[in-house]
Amino acid sequence: MVKGVIFDLDGVITDTAGYHFLAWSHLAKEIGIEIDEEFNEKLKGVSRMESLEAILKYGNKENEFTWEEKEALATKKNEHYKELIQNISKKDILPGIEALLKELKANNIKIALGSASKNAPVILKQLGIEEYFDYVVDANQIKNSKPAPDIFIDALKGLNLKPEEAVGVEDAEAGIEAIHGAGMVAIGVGVNGDVNVNSTEELTYDVILRASKVC
Ligand code: BG6
Ligand code: MG
C-alpha cells in the first residue's frame, strides 16, 4: 500500500516550465544563442547552473565565460524568471492537482515536493498549497540534481518512507530517471514512466493506487 507521493513542481503542480523557457531563451539570445522548445525539453528538471552549461554547450560557447560570469548569467536569468512568476497564484495550479492533494491528505498519504528549483518554497506559497506538504526538498542542500536520484532520496528520508512505499510524479525524462534511481515507481505526466497520464487532469487518486500496485 502506498504511503507517500513525491511530486515534482515545474510542469506537474504548475506550468512554470514555460516561464523557465522564456527566461532562458531571452538570456541565450543576449549571448548569441538561439534555443527552441525541442532543446528546452532537455532542460526540464535540470538545475539552474547545469541548464546554463547545457545552453552554452549547445551554442558552442562553453569555454567563453569564467565561473563568475556564468554565475552572473544564471543570476540574471533567475531575476527575469522571478519577475515572470511574481503574479502566479491559485489560478495557476494545474487542473486536478489541488483535488488530488486533498484526497491524498484525506487518505493519510504523506506528500513531499521533490523539486530541483530553489524557487520552489516561494512558488508553493504563492499557489497557496504549502500546507499540504509534509516535506519540501531544499534544492540548496542537494549536491547532485536530476537525473541523479538525490532529490528523491532526500524526500523519502524527509517522509521517513522506504522507496517501495512511495511513488514519484514527474513530467521530465531527467525526473523519471531520478525517481527510478531512488528505487521508486514513477508516474509520467506527458513523459514515459511506469504508469502514464497525458495531463494532470488524468492524474487521479486511482492512478496513484494503480502505480502503487506496480511497486
Ligand atoms: C526544475 C525545472 O524544476 O528546476 C528546471 O524543471 C529548472 O527547468 C530547475 O532549471 C532549477 O530551477 P531554479 O528555480 O532553481 O532556477
Ligand atoms: Mg518538471
From TrEMBL:
<feature type="binding site">
    <location>
        <position position="24"/>
    </location>
    <ligand>
        <name>substrate</name>
    </ligand>
</feature>
<keyword id="KW-0963">Cytoplasm</keyword>
<keyword id="KW-0460">Magnesium</keyword>
<feature type="binding site">
    <location>
        <position position="10"/>
    </location>
    <ligand>
        <name>Mg(2+)</name>
    </ligand>
</feature>
<dbReference type="InterPro" id="IPR023198">
    <property type="entry name" value="PGP-like_dom2"/>
</dbReference>
<dbReference type="GO" id="GO:0005737">
    <property type="term" value="C:cytoplasm"/>
</dbReference>
<keyword id="KW-0479">Metal-binding</keyword>
<dbReference type="InterPro" id="IPR010972">
    <property type="entry name" value="Beta-PGM"/>
</dbReference>
<dbReference type="InterPro" id="IPR041492">
    <property type="entry name" value="HAD_2"/>
</dbReference>
<feature type="binding site">
    <location>
        <position position="51"/>
    </location>
    <ligand>
        <name>substrate</name>
    </ligand>
</feature>
<feature type="site" description="Important for catalytic activity and assists the phosphoryl transfer reaction to Asp8 by balancing charge and orienting the reacting groups">
    <location>
        <position position="115"/>
    </location>
</feature>
<dbReference type="InterPro" id="IPR023214">
    <property type="entry name" value="HAD_sf"/>
</dbReference>
<feature type="binding site">
    <location>
        <position position="8"/>
    </location>
    <ligand>
        <name>Mg(2+)</name>
    </ligand>
</feature>
<feature type="active site" description="Proton donor/acceptor">
    <location>
        <position position="10"/>
    </location>
</feature>
<dbReference type="InterPro" id="IPR006439">
    <property type="entry name" value="HAD-SF_hydro_IA"/>
</dbReference>
<dbReference type="GO" id="GO:0008801">
    <property type="term" value="F:beta-phosphoglucomutase activity"/>
</dbReference>
<dbReference type="InterPro" id="IPR010976">
    <property type="entry name" value="B-phosphoglucomutase_hydrolase"/>
</dbReference>
<dbReference type="GO" id="GO:0000287">
    <property type="term" value="F:magnesium ion binding"/>
</dbReference>
<dbReference type="Pfam" id="PF13419">
    <property type="entry name" value="HAD_2"/>
</dbReference>
<feature type="active site" description="Nucleophile">
    <location>
        <position position="8"/>
    </location>
</feature>
<feature type="binding site">
    <location>
        <position position="146"/>
    </location>
    <ligand>
        <name>substrate</name>
    </ligand>
</feature>
<dbReference type="InterPro" id="IPR051806">
    <property type="entry name" value="HAD-like_SPP"/>
</dbReference>
<dbReference type="GO" id="GO:0005975">
    <property type="term" value="P:carbohydrate metabolic process"/>
</dbReference>
<feature type="binding site">
    <location>
        <begin position="43"/>
        <end position="48"/>
    </location>
    <ligand>
        <name>substrate</name>
    </ligand>
</feature>
<protein>
    <recommendedName>
        <fullName>Beta-phosphoglucomutase</fullName>
        <ecNumber>5.4.2.6</ecNumber>
    </recommendedName>
</protein>
<feature type="binding site">
    <location>
        <position position="171"/>
    </location>
    <ligand>
        <name>Mg(2+)</name>
    </ligand>
</feature>
<feature type="site" description="Important for catalytic activity and assists the phosphoryl transfer reaction to Asp8 by balancing charge and orienting the reacting groups">
    <location>
        <position position="146"/>
    </location>
</feature>
<keyword id="KW-0119">Carbohydrate metabolism</keyword>
<dbReference type="InterPro" id="IPR036412">
    <property type="entry name" value="HAD-like_sf"/>
</dbReference>
<keyword id="KW-0413">Isomerase</keyword>
<keyword id="KW-0597">Phosphoprotein</keyword>
<feature type="binding site">
    <location>
        <begin position="115"/>
        <end position="119"/>
    </location>
    <ligand>
        <name>substrate</name>
    </ligand>
</feature>
<dbReference type="GO" id="GO:0050308">
    <property type="term" value="F:sugar-phosphatase activity"/>
</dbReference>
<feature type="binding site">
    <location>
        <begin position="8"/>
        <end position="10"/>
    </location>
    <ligand>
        <name>substrate</name>
    </ligand>
</feature>
<feature type="binding site">
    <location>
        <position position="170"/>
    </location>
    <ligand>
        <name>Mg(2+)</name>
    </ligand>
</feature>
<comment type="similarity">
    <text>Belongs to the HAD-like hydrolase superfamily. CbbY/CbbZ/Gph/YieH family.</text>
</comment>
<feature type="binding site">
    <location>
        <position position="77"/>
    </location>
    <ligand>
        <name>substrate</name>
    </ligand>
</feature>
